[in-house]
Amino acid sequence: MNIEYTKHISGHSLKHYTNLSVLRYNINSSMAAIDIIKKHLTDIGYGNQLKEPSSLKNNVIEIVPEEDRIKTFNDIAEKLRVKIKNTFFAVDEKQVQDTIGKGSFKSSEGAIIFPQSPFAEIAVKVIKGAAGSGPSTAEQETYSALCFAAKLLNNKTNYSLEELIKAKKLVKAKKNDPEKLFTKVVTQDWKDSSKAQTETFFDKMNLSGTNFTIELQKEGPITTYLYNTANKLLKDLDKNSKLSIYANIQKDKWNPGDIWIISSDISESDFKGVETIKSLNEKILGFFKQKKLIPISLKKVKANTTAAFEISNDGNTNFTGKYSGHDLGKKNGFSYTNNNMELYYKLVNTETKSESGIVRPFTKTDISFEIKGLAAAGGKAGRTFINTVLKSMGKKTVISYKDIDKAYEKNRAQLYEMFFISAKNSEYPPKENNITNFMTQIQKKYKPGPKERAYIIAKYQVTELSKILKTLKKSEKDTLVDKCITYASSTIKQVSSVFAKVGK
Predict the structure, then answer these.
(1) Please, what is the end-to-end C-alpha distance for the chain in angstroms?
(2) Contact, 68 vs 139, CB < 8 A?
(3) Mean pLDDT, the chain, as a whole number?
(4) Position 110 in a domain
(5) How far apart are CA 205 and CA 291, in angstroms?
(6) pLDDT confidence of 179, banded at 50, 70, 90?
(7) How many CB atoms lie under 10 A from the CB of residue 228?
(8) Number of domains in the chain
(9) At a CB cut-off of 8 Å and minimum separation 6, what does 164 contact?
(10) Residue 96 · residue 107 · CB < 8 Å
(11) Which residue among 283, 307, 331 closes a domain?
(12) What is the mean pLDDT of residues 75-80?
């Protein structure tokens, strides 16, 4: 992979194209390496979120997120993976300490590290947002709500502070302080994003007037009532043999609306007598089509781009997921250099689209299935949900990382044997025919220790899933994939309710 690096070191200007193997010889100090990582972070849009001062304790680069910490962590992880291929892992606190050798490192969410690269002594940590360092998720959403309200009041709004103050009366949110948000909290990139979200939404939906309020989720009377009602009705799914696996889902999987535009003539009484999640969703859909009740999932819009827009669960955009294959980290094979499984599927509606997703650990140690493309846009279905679906079909389930970790601690050699047997029985067995050669291949990439341990934990889980998939009928594979896709994207048939998504 080629990169361009321009930096003054000891009075000398360096500008060259090189690959990572050459970089190992060109980086003469940890500060030079840190500067390269900072440049990568700037290139992917996080330069303004780097914590200062630039002097770094223990070679840990800190990011103060403008959005949710986990969401930011995932986004940086994915983008740095492209720039520094096969050298980055998201790991827990102990693994970070073991890898970069800094015992004082503290983080319950782990960090991004770069083993077996010129940046092996550096970690990137996403910390909690601090006052004045960037808006919280609630502040971002409130600012967007104020922009939406300003557009309702004046179709030609310029989103000035004066306009947002006028719009305050339409917004129900705990952080509803336009002056503070505009002058002290919200960054310019989020102001630009909120404007782009608003312009796209109103171009598609064509609303105006003062007979609306905008509520942040569960910060106004109608959304509080609806989410509390949904919570009760979702629990009732436990009595439904076909839908019982969704009885305890996160409420965002029912409806991920961050803000709701609500007509003034909507009240709790409109939902009295609703006794099932299906009937609640039908009520909401009816009001959605009348433009009286509109849940909106907000996604940040990148600078100089148009906000994406889509509606889910309106009966017209629902799709069916169909399994079309998988691999174990490389096409039609087993990879020793990454801990992934790639899962391929088709989305079938009025047209058929081929998509794929990755199964691996993300911020936590257990695997998750992250599906990409229009249907999901980064949504995840974790091992717990995958196992819930498998159990509902009477199938074996995927082993937890805790059990693998305990086995590694107790008898590493025996765990290797178990892993080898699992891999050989998977859909894509490794070419090595004995345990010794299998171990040798792994240790070419991962020396015994935390990196090897992390690889085995993740790869063992996906080989177990591959082994299970090998035993499923085509219809069962379709069922598993369909349920995981719809769960991750909040489009669960007969369970999720209509919403609009703006931005991506």
Answers:
(1) 27
(2) no
(3) 84
(4) yes
(5) 8
(6) very high
(7) 12
(8) 3
(9) 146, 147, 150, 178, 181, 182
(10) yes
(11) 307
(12) 82
Looking at the fold, whether 427 and 340 belong to one and the same domain comes out as yes
Tell me whether residue 35 is in a domain: yes
In sequence order, the 6+-apart residues with CB closer than 8 A to the CB of 241 are none
Compute the average pLDDT of residues 250-265. Answer: 94
List the strands of the sheet with 171-172, edge to edge: 171-172, 212-216, 259-263, 293-298, 499-502, 309-312
Residue 502 falls inside a structural domain: no
Tell me the two tokens of residue 191.
């102001």
Is the domain of 145 the same as that of 223? yes
Cα atoms in the 13 Å half-sphere on the side-chain side of 288: 20
Q: Is residue 155 situated within a structural domain?
A: yes
Q: Is the dihedral of CA 262, 265, 268, 274 positive or negative?
A: negative
Do 243 and 378 have their domain in common? no
Tell me: pLDDT of 326 over 90. Answer: yes
Same domain, 282 and 418: no
Q: Report which of 141, 383, 109 is spatially closest to residue 256, judged by C-alpha positions.
A: 141
What integer is the mean pLDDT of 99-113? 58
Q: Are 389 and 369 in contact (CB under 8 A)?
A: no
- Bond into 53 cis (ω within 30): yes
Give the pair of three-digit tokens for residue 398.
């995927």
CB within 8 A of 418, min separation 6: which ones?
A: 407, 460
Q: What range defines the domain where residue 240 resides? A: 137-307
Q: What are phi and psi of 246, to 5 degrees?
A: -100, 10
Cα separation, 121 vs 484, in Å, equals 37
Half-sphere exposure of 449 (CA within 13 A, CB side): 14
Closest C-alpha to 148, from 221, 223, 219, 216: 216
327 shares a domain with 302: no
Positive or negative torsion for Cα 59, 64, 68, 74: negative
Tokens 């009484």 appear where?
Answer: 269
The Cα–Cα gap between 463 and 458 comes to 9
3-state SS, 390-439, equals HHHCCCCCCCCHHHHHHHHHHCHHHHHHHHHHHHHCCCCCCCCCCHHHHH
Q: What single-letter DSSP state applies at residue 41? A: H
Query: What three-state secondary structure class fits 332?
Result: coil
Residue percentage of the chain with pLDDT more than 70: 83
Do both 226 and 363 map to the same domain?
A: no
Residues ≥6 apart with Cβ < 8 Å to 272: none
For residue 183, the 8-state DSSP code is I
Under the banding of pLDDT at 50, 70 and 90, the label for residue 135 is confident
Give the β-pairing of 60-63 and 123-126: parallel
Whether residue 365 contacts residue 453, with contact meaning beta carbons closer than 8 Å, is answered with no
